[in-house]
From TrEMBL:
InterPro entries: Bacterial_rp_domain (IPR044060), Pectin_lyas_fold (IPR012334), Pectin_lyase_fold/virulence (IPR011050), PL-6 (IPR039513), Secre_tail (IPR026444). The lineage of its organism: Bacteria, Pseudomonadati, Bacteroidota, Cytophagia, Cytophagales. This is Chondroitinase-B domain-containing protein. SUPFAM superfamilies: Pectin lyase-like (SSF51126). Residues 468-529 form the Bacterial repeat domain. NCBIfam families: Por_Secre_tail (TIGR04183). Residues 547-613 form the Secretion system C-terminal sorting domain.
C-alpha cells in the first residue's frame, strides 16, 4: 500500500509541474498556445468579443476557458471542434453567429467536460454534437436558445456506437425555439438516430429545464436504448413532449411536465418504465401510447405517477398494432380536463390506481373511484392530504424495474422528491409522492437554477428604443420585462423619403419587420438612412474634423471646420457596430467636448449628423477613437 501511495504522489507532482497557463486574446495567439500546450495546461481567453474564431482543440487534457465566465463572447463564424480526450471547455458565450450548416461545438473526444456555455441566436446545423467515438462526455450548466434557422436540425445531438457512451446532460436549459411543432426536426435533444435504435447509449439527461421549445413535437427524441431521463422540468412547451422513439428500455422518472401540449409519448420500443413523475396542465395528452407498425409497443410500465388537470392518457387501441403487456400500477389520476383515458386496448393490467373524474373507459377493478384528496402546497403543486386514501395503499404484482450495467438510478426506493419510500409495498403511497412530506412537491430544475451560473438569475431586462434620424420603432409583444433570449418582433416606420437601415445587433438586416433574440443590455436602436440619393454634404468634408486626445480615458474634443451646423447628433459605435453612445449636442466655438469615461476600454468609431435634417457631417468610420 505504501508503494502505491508513493507512486500516486509522484504522478500528481509531475502533472502539477507541467501545468502552464496561456492567456490569449486572438485566434493567432490561441493557435500558438495550442502548439506549445501539453496535458494539464490551460488556455484562457481574455474578456472580450471575438469574431470568426475557429477553435480546433487537439491537445489531450487541455482546459480551454474564459478569463471571466460569460465575459468572452464569440460571434460571426466562430465554432469549436474537440478531437482530444479529457478536454474541458468552459465559460464562453456564442451569440448571434452564422456558420451556415456547420456545428457550433462538435466533440469527438472522450471524458470531455463542456460546461458554463451559452449558445444564443446562432444560425447553424447543430448547436452541439457528440459523435459516436466519444465516451463519457458531460454537458453541464449550459444554455441552448433561439436558433435562428428552422430547418431539420436538432439542437443537441448524441450519436451512438457499438459501445455505450455513458454521456450526461445535466443542469442545462433549452429555451425559445420557435416553429410549428410537428416533425420539423428542431428537437432540443436527440439521442441516437433511427439506424442506431438497436444500440445501447446509456445516456443520462437530468435536472434540465425546457421552456418555449416549439420547434418540434419532440422535446427529447429518444432513438437509442437504455437511456435515463430524470428530474427534468418541461414547462410551457405548447407543441411538444418527451418522446420515446426507437430503442428499448428507457427509464423516465422524477420529471415535471407542466402546461405543455403533452407529457410522455411512447411511439416505439419495448420494456420502457415511466414512474414517479408529475403531470399537470397538459393540453393534448398526458401519456400517449401509440399504435405503431414499425416497432409495436410491448411491456410498457407506468407506475406511481400523479396526473392532475390534464387531458387524457391515450392507450393506443385503435389500429392493427396495439400496445401489448401494458401495466398501470399505483398511479393517481385527478380532475381531468375531459376524460382520464381514451382508446383502450382492453388488455391493460390495472393495479392499485386511484381516480377522480370522468374515467372515459369501463372501470376495471384496478382503478378505484376514490378522491385522492390532493392539497395544493405553497409552491402551487399538489400532494397528499393527511386524510388521503392513497396513503399506504400501493399494491404489488407489477414487474420490477431492471438495473442497467454502468448506470445508477432509483427503482422506487424513493419518491419524486427523493423521500424514502417504505420497503414493504403495502406501506408505500399511491402517486408520485409519499406522505408525510418532509419536502414539498416542486420541480428540481427551474429557470433560475439551470444554465450557466452567470445568467441563472432569470436575466430579466426591460427594453428601450431610440431612433436616430426620423421615424419610429415598435416591438411586440409589449411587456414590462423580458427574459434573455426571448423572441420579439421589431417593426420600423420610416419617415417619408427615408429607408430602414440598421438594427443594433443586426447590421446587415433590412427586413421590416424582423425577429430578434434579446441579449444582455439590449438597447433597441433603429437607424434610418438618408434618401437613396442624398443631397450634397455640407461643410464638414471628409477628414476635416480633428479629434484629441486620442487615445483618451475620459474626455475627447472634436474640433470642427468653421460653418459646421450648430446642432449635431453624435453617434459612437463599437467595433461590432452597436451604438454605445447617442447624444444631441450644441457646437460651442467650433468644437464639441464629449465625456466617454463610461465606455469600456476599446476602439470606437464616431459619426456626426446635422440634427436638423439628418445630413452626415462626417462619414461613419473616419473618426476612430481609442478609449483607454
Amino acid at each position: 500500500m505504501r508503494i502505491a501511495a508513493f507512486l500516486v504522489i509522484l504522478l500528481v507532482a509531475e502533472v502539477t509541474l507541467a501545468q502552464t497557463r496561456y492567456n490569449v486574446s486572438s485566434l493567432s495567439e490561441f493557435k500558438s498556445a495550442l502548439n506549445e500546450a501539453v496535458n494539464g495546461d490551460s488556455v484562457v481567453w481574455r474578456s472580450g468579443r471575438y469574431e470568426d474564431v475557429f477553435m480546433d482543440i487537439n491537445v489531450e487534457g487541455l482546459v480551454v476557458t474564459a478569463e471571466s465566465y460569460g465575459a468572452v463572447i464569440f460571434t460571426g463564424e466562430s465554432k469549436v471542434e474537440i478531437d482530444a480526450d479529457k478536454v474541458v471547455l468552459s465559460g464562453f458565450q456564442f451569440v448571434g453567429g452564422d456558420i451556415g450548416t456547420d456545428n457550433v461545438i462538435r466533440n469527438w473526444g472522450s471524458d470531455v467536460l463542456i460546461t458554463q456555455i451559452n449558445i444564443l441566436g446562432y444560425t447553424s446545423f447543430k448547436y452541439l454534437i457528440v459523435d459516436e467515438d466519444s465516451r463519457r462526455t458531460t454537458i453541464s450548466h449550459c444554455n441552448f436558445e433561439s436558433r435562428i434557422n428552422l430547418a431539420d436540425q436538432n439542437i443537441l445531438s448524441i450519436l451512438v456506437d457499438n459501445e455505450p457512451g455513458y454521456h450526461k446532460i445535466q443542469h442545462c436549459s433549452f429555451r425559445n425555439f420557435r416553429g410549428s411543432g410537428g416533425d420539423m426536426g428542431v428537437e432540443p435533444i436527440r439521442i441516437g438516430v433511427s439506424s442506431q435504435a438497436h444500440l445501447d447509449s446509456r445516456t443520462i439527461v437530468e435536472y434540465c429545464y425546457f421552456e418555449n421549445c416549439d420547434g418540434d413535437g419532440e422535446l427529447i427524441s429518444n432513438k437509442a436504448a437504455q437511456n435515463v431521463f430524470r428530474y427534468n422540468t418541461f414547462e410551457n412547451n405548447t407543441k411538444g413532449e418527451l418522446v420515446l422513439r426507437h430503442g428499448d428500455e428507457a427509464i423516465v422518472y422524477g420529471n415535471f411536465f407542466l402546461n405543455n401540449m403533452g407529457g410522455v409519448r411512447v411511439r416505439e420500443g419495448q420494456n420502457h418504465f415511466i414512474y414517479n413523475n408529475y403531470f399537470s396542465g397538459l393540453t393534448s395528452r398526458a401519456i400517449y401510447l401509440q399504435n405503431e407498425s414499425s416497432d409495436p409497443l410491448d411491456s410498457i410500465h407506468v407506475y406511481f405517477n400523479t396526473i392532475v388537470d390534464s387531458e387524457e392518457v391515450k392507450l393506443g387501441g385503435s389500429g392493427s398494432f396495439p400496445p401489448q403487456h401494458v401495466v398501470f400500477a399505483n398511479n393517481i389520476f385527478s380532475n381531468p380536463k375531459g376524460v382520464i383515458f381514451d382508446d383502450p386496448t382492453g388488455t391493460e393490467q390495472w393495479l392499485g390506481n386511484l381516480s377522480l373524474g370522468s374515467l372515459g373507459i369501463d372501470r376495471p377493478s384496478g382503478i378505484s373511484d376514490l378522491d385522492p384528496k390532493l392539497i395544493e402546497n405553497d409552491k402551487g403543486f399538489f400532494q397528499l392530504d393527511s386524510e388521503s386514501p392513497a396513503i399506504d395503499a400501493a399494491v404489488s404484482g407489477f414487474p420490477p424495474i431492471p438495473m442497467i450495467d454502468g448506470l445508477e438510478f432509483d427503482d422506487l426506493k424513493l419518491d419524486i422528491m427523493k423521500q424514502i419510500r417504505p420497503d414493504e409495498i403495502d406501506q408505500k403511497d399511491v402517486g408520485a409522492s409519499e406522505f408525510p412530506h418532509t419536502v414539498d412537491v416542486q420541480p428540481y430544475a427551474t429557470t433560475s437554477n439551470t444554465g450557466p451560473a452567470y445568467s441563472n438569475d432569470e436575466s430579466i431586462f426591460s427594453l428601450s428604443s431610440s431612433v436616430v434620424g426620423e421615424g419610429s420603432v415598435t416591438w411586440s409583444p409589449i411587456k414590462d420585462t423580458y427574459r434573455l433570449g426571448e423572441i420579439i418582433t421589431l417593426t420600423a416606420t420610416p419617415a417619408d423619403g427615408y429607408q430602414f437601415s440598421k438594427w443594433a445587433g443586426d447590421l446587415d438586416g433590412t427586413d421590416n419587420p424582423m425577429m430578434i433574440s434579446i441579449t444582455e443590455d439590449m438597447n433597441v436602436i433603429a437607424e434610418f438612412a438618408l434618401p437613396v440619393t442624398p443631397p450634397p454634404l455640407g461643410t464638414g468634408s471628409k477628414g476635416a474634423i480633428e479629434i484629441f486626445p486620442n487615445p483618451t480615458c475620459d474626455l475627447v474634443r472634436l474640433v470642427l471646420p468653421s460653418g459646421s451646423p450648430s446642432q449635431l447628433s453624435l453617434l459612437v459605435y463599437d467595433v461590432e457596430g452597436k451604438i454605445r453612445l447617442s447624444r444631441q449636442m450644441t457646437v460651442v466655438q467650433d468644437y464639441l467636448e464629449v465625456d466617454v469615461s463610461m465606455l469600456p476600454a476599446a476602439i470606437y468609431f464616431l459619426t456626426l449628423r446635422n440634427a436638423r435634417n439628418g445630413e452626415v457631417v462626417e462619414e461613419a468610420g473616419i473618426l476612430r477613437l481609442i478609449k483607454n
